Amino acid sequence: MPDSTITVDIRDKADFDNGHIKGSVNMTAQQLAQYKFDEGCKVVVVCRNGRFSEQAAKQLCERGVDASALEGGYSGWLYESIDGSDRSREIEQSIRKKFARPIWSRFARAIIKYELVKPGDRIAVCISGGKDSMLLAKLFQELKAHNKFDFELKFLVMDPGYSPVNRRLIEKNAAILGIPIEVFETNIFNSVFNVKNNPCYLCARMRRGHLYNKAKEMGCNKIALGHHYDDVIETILMGMIYGGQVQTMMPKLHSANFEGMQLIRPMYLIREAEIKRWRDYNDLHFLQCACRFTEENTSVGHTGESESKRLEIKHLIAELKQRNPQIEANIFRSVENVNLNTIISYKKNGEITHFLDGYDD
C-alpha cells in the first residue's frame, strides 16, 4: 500500500465546523491516541495554535506512528492562507445585493423596531474577531454611509490576552473588511484561567465591564454587540430549562454600572445560518473562539459548562424543528406575547407580583 498522509484536527467540533483545513478529519485527543492507523500512514496533527498538537504527535510517535504537528496550528495556517487583497468593496456589495433581504433588511428592521440608533449617538461597535461581530461592523459601516441622520462609530477590539497569531488574524481580517479597529489590552484571560466554576460567565462579565469602561472613556454612549436571532431563542430555552425562569436576551439595555451607557444588539433579527452563508460566500475565515481557557479544555476533550448547555439547546431546537418548522419563530414570539393574566407570578424591578394579589378584589 502506498504511503498516505492524513490530517487530524483535534479542536472542538464547533471550531472544526466553523472552519478547517480541507480534507482534515475531526477527532478528540483521546480518540486520536487510541486510533489504529494503517502501516506507512503519515499523520499531521492540528490544534488551535500548535501547542497541544505537539504533545499528541509525540504520543503517536512513541507508538511508532509517523506523526508531526502543524506549526502554528489552525490559527497559523489560517493567517497564512487568507487572501489579503482589497476585497472590502465586494464584501460590502454582497450585503447590499445578495444578502439584502436576509441580512441587511433585518438589521435595518431591528434598528427601527427597537429604536437602537438615534441622532447624536456615539456607538462603540465591539469586535471579538468572530463572524458575528465582523458582520456587525460592516453593517454599521453601511448604515453610516446611507443614513439620514448623524451618529458616530468607533470599532473597538479588546485583547483579553490573545495569542500573537490570533491577534494578527483579527487585525488581518479587519484590514480585509476595511474596518478601522482600535485595540486595547486587558489581562482577563490570566485572571479567569484558574477559576474552576463558570470561568466563561466570569470572563464575559469582565469583558463587558472593560468594554463599557473603554467606550465611555472614548465618549461613546452605546456599545453594540453581535448577538443574533439564534442566540435569543437559545437564551429563552436555557433560562426555562436550566434557570427555571422566563427571560430573554433584550435588544437593548441600560447599563446598571455605567451611567448613561446602553447596550444594543442590532443583529437581533438575523439568523445565524445567513451569517454563515455571508461568511462562506465571501470566502472569509474567522476563529470560533480565541480564548486560552477554551483552547486548553477542548484540546483535551472538555467544553465549558455554559457552552455544552448551549450546544445541547441547539440540538434540541434542531430536533423540534424537524417536527414543527415554526418552532424557532414560536419560541421568539413567546416572549413578545406574554399574557400576565395566565402567569402565576412575575418580577419587575425586583418586586414580585403574585396572581393571588388582588385575586378576590
Produce a short descriptive summary.
The protein has 361 residues and is an alpha/beta fold. It has helices spanning 13-18, 29-34, 51-62, 73-81, 88-96, 100-113, 131-146, 164-177, 188-192, 199-217, 229-243, 272-281, 292-298, 305-323, 327-334, and strands at 4-9, 25-26, 41-46, 66-69, 122-127, 152-159, 181-185, 222-224, 252-254, 262-264, 345-348, 351-354. It folds into 2 domains: 4-80, 3-Layer(aba) Sandwich (Oxidized Rhodanese, domain 1); 83-298, HUPs (Rossmann fold), CATH 3.40.50.620.
What would the keywords be for this entry?
361 residues, alpha/beta, six-stranded mixed beta sheet, Rossmann fold, 15% strand, four-stranded parallel beta sheet
Order of helices and strands: EHEHEHEHHHEHEHEHHEHEEHHHHEE
Number of strands: 12
Strand content: 5-15%
Corresponding CATH superfamily of the largest domain: HUPs
Taking all Cα atoms into account, the compactness measure Rg is: 23 Å
Unreliable parts? 298-303
CATH fold call of the largest domain: Rossmann fold
CATH architecture label of the largest domain: 3-Layer(aba) Sandwich
Shape: globular
Major sheet size, sense and barrel closure: 6 strands, mixed
What is the end-to-end distance? 86 Å
SS content category: alpha/beta
Mean pLDDT: 89
Helix content: 40-55%
How do the strands of the widest beta sheet line up side by side? 7-6-5-8-10-9
CATH class of the largest domain: Alpha Beta
- Give the count of helical stretches: 15
How many domains make up the coordinates? 2
